[in-house]
Amino acid sequence: MSTLPHHHRRRRGISALVLAAALVLSACGGDPATSPVEAAAPTGQDDPAVARVGYFGGTNLWTLAEDSNAVSDALKKIGGSVQWNGPLAPVEASEAAKAGRIDFTSNSVATFFNEADSASSLVAFALIRNSGDNQGIVVRDQAGIGSVADLAGKRVAVSTKGSTGEYVLLAALESAGLKADAVKIVYIANPADGVSALASGDVDALATWDNFFASAQLVKDTSVLTTNAQTGARNWSLFVVTRSFLDEHPATVRAVFDGLVDQANRIRTDRDVEKKARLADGQPANLVDLVVGFDPGEVVAINDEVLAQIREVGEQTVRFGFRASVPDLSKNYVDVTTLGS
């Protein structure tokens, strides 16, 4: 368990992109007539609150925003400040937020789904929406797989049941009109071990994400079969705030959102920003070149349109058997653009 806070950040080391290691999908959806969480309206421009952010290991939007002061600068405009805490494992960050030790962190769509049946202490206020080219399936060239349909009867590695990898695989199969039982799914809990299994020939294909997706592409005699961008699958990352902090400091939540939007725009405009950070974290240059080639996405508020897109993912994962029903999402999100600036 990490000690909070860490005011001086360590070398982050090689890690998956923000949230990816935690993306164990379950399902989502709900009644279309949803109403977001009602946060108290800001009483004025100034809010001298301290935003305690818990970030994951690896290079991600939070750590880049710490390096650039994007969030800090946004908070200074309203008299606030930021305290950085981490690196934390995804589960550890969620527990720290629920225990009141931090106010902001990242989370997965899965957790949003899993907690949506009740009013959670965590409220989603933004997500990173990208094309999905950072998640996909890599195949061994000698396996005779030229299309998704050719996966039938093949051994395909994913991390765990209901995981990001399995979601990527089943979304691809669905796009080709195939069911899960058309392939031999091999569960390998550690995603890095899945890359090794692909390299050794223990499996014919690997469905994975982010750094692991890039690592698989570096294995000799392999090729990318498909990506979420091609199958239309959505597997996005969320930013969350504690409900109590949202109620007390809505202007600060909006300022943090503005800082994240600013940072996301910076790395979209100049991919060298992320590249330099990853190299400074000790990541191999050939891996970094692939990762920074992925669409970094944009930070967007969770409005009705975005919520409808999240619901579609939920309906899809119900079809995959990850969850029995589609929960109501309305209790655990806020449209941050309504909070003022």
Task: Please give a handful of descriptors for the protein shown.
alpha/beta; D-Maltodextrin-Binding Protein, domain 2; 2 domains; four-stranded antiparallel beta sheet; 13 helices; 11 strands; globular
The poorly predicted ranges are 5-35
What class, by secondary structure content?
Answer: alpha/beta
N-to-C series of helices and strands? EHHEHEHEEEHEHEHEHEHHHHEH
Total number of distinct structural domains:
2
CATH architecture of the largest domain: 3-Layer(aba) Sandwich
Number of strands: 11
Strand order of the largest sheet: 7-6-8-5-9
CATH level-1 class of the largest domain: Alpha Beta
- Supply Rg: 20 Å
- The pLDDT mean sits at 86
Q: What would CATH call the homologous superfamily of the largest domain?
A: Periplasmic binding protein-like II
> What is the terminal separation in angstroms?
35 Å
Description:
It is a single chain. The chain folds into 2 domains: 20-130 and 236-339, D-Maltodextrin-Binding Protein, domain 2; 135-231, D-Maltodextrin-Binding Protein, domain 2 (3-Layer(aba) Sandwich), CATH 3.40.190. Helices cover 36% and strands 18% of the residues. It contains 13 helices and 11 strands. It has helices at 61-68, 70-76, 90-98, 109-114, 164-175, 191-200, 210-217, 228-231, 243-248, 250-269, 272-280, 285-291, 304-319; strands at residues 50-56, 81-88, 104-108, 122-129, 135-140, 155-158, 184-187, 205-209, 222-227, 237-242, 298-301. Helix 1 (61-68) crosses helix 10 (250-269) and helix 7 packs across helix 12 (285-291). Mean pLDDT is 86; it is low at 5-35. Residues 50-281 form the Solute-binding protein family 3/N-terminal domain.
